[in-house]
Write a structure and sequence with these properties.
Low-confidence stretches: 173-177
Mean pLDDT: 79
Structural class: alpha+beta
Number of strands: 12
Shape: elongated
Strand order of the largest sheet: 1-8-3-6
Distance between the termini: 44 Å
Oligomer: single chain
């Protein structure tokens, strides 16, 4: 990764975008490029957060592992997003394992360098607060889903959110219309996000299909894309919203 790429990587992060050019140059000088292989463990739960990791390409994932060994994906960050922001506000440790979900290139910045940059910019400090608020909102959504919804409701909510993201919050078809949504990764990853098993997820998907709420290609599996994602057709988003309680 070239020096030009370093500053480009820093500029992709919203909290850094409007920093003075000189500050961006200092940050880019502190960047250490890292490449991670798919499935590579980058940090373990309990490790000190000493760096900000900005994803240049690929995807990083935060995973909680229960005492029984079941994995729960609690967060994913893609290009332009970053992980480790809690370390900017206080001395903090990772509350889950950080794993490369796929081949990933990251720009790694020491916490000390980022704190220095933010301290000189009220705008950057405000954007950091906004980033922390978004993370808190997402965490509350995950906790709320796990505590208040069963697996069928969590699956319905996931499908509804995917449909809304694909067609806009108010542009989705109701009963009688259809929307094709792309669900990233294999069913095992989706099951981990929803706090269930692939077998249970498969049963719930079949039940939604039998009820006429979704459609999948013949054979019972959603159509597989080149990147491993799968396409599902939403046939009745209003009913899915009712199931999810949204």
């Amino acid at each position: 990764m070239s020096e030009h790429s370093h500053i480009g990587c820093v500029r992709t992060v919203p909290i850094f975008r409007d920093l003075p050019h000189e500050t961006l140059l200092r940050l880019s000088e502190a960047v250490r490029p890292r490449e991670f292989g798919r499935g590579e463990l980058i940090a373990s739960a309990g490790d000190s957060i000493d760096n900000i990791m900005i994803v240049a390409a690929g995807k990083l994932r935060m995973v909680h592992v229960s005492p029984s060994g079941r994995e729960q994906i609690v967060r994913e960050v893609g290009p332009g997003e970053f992980i480790g922001e809690l370390g900017l506000a206080m001395s903090a440790r990772y509350d889950g394992d950080v794993v490369a979900a796929e081949e990933t290139l990251a720009c790694v910045l020491p916490i000390s360098a980022v704190r220095e940059a933010i301290s000189s910019s009220p705008e950057a400090a405000m954007r950091l607060i906004e980033a922390l608020v978004r993370r808190l909102a997402r965490a509350e959504q995950v906790v709320g889903d796990l505590g208040a919804r069963d697996v069928s409701q969590r699956l319905a909510a996931e499908l509804v959110r995917a449909a809304r993201g694909a067609c806009g919050c108010s542009g989705c078809s109701g009963k009688g219309g259809s929307n094709v949504v792309v669900l990233p990764g294999p069913w095992s990853e989706m099951a981990a996000r929803l706090g269930t098993t692939p077998e249970s997820l498969s049963r719930r998907l079949r039940a939604l299909e039998e009820e006429g709420l979704i459609a999948r290609p013949a054979g019972g599996e959603a159509e597989l894309e080149r990147d491993g994602s799968r396409r599902v057709v939403i046939l009745d988003i209003e009913r899915l919203e009712e199931i999810a309680g949204l």
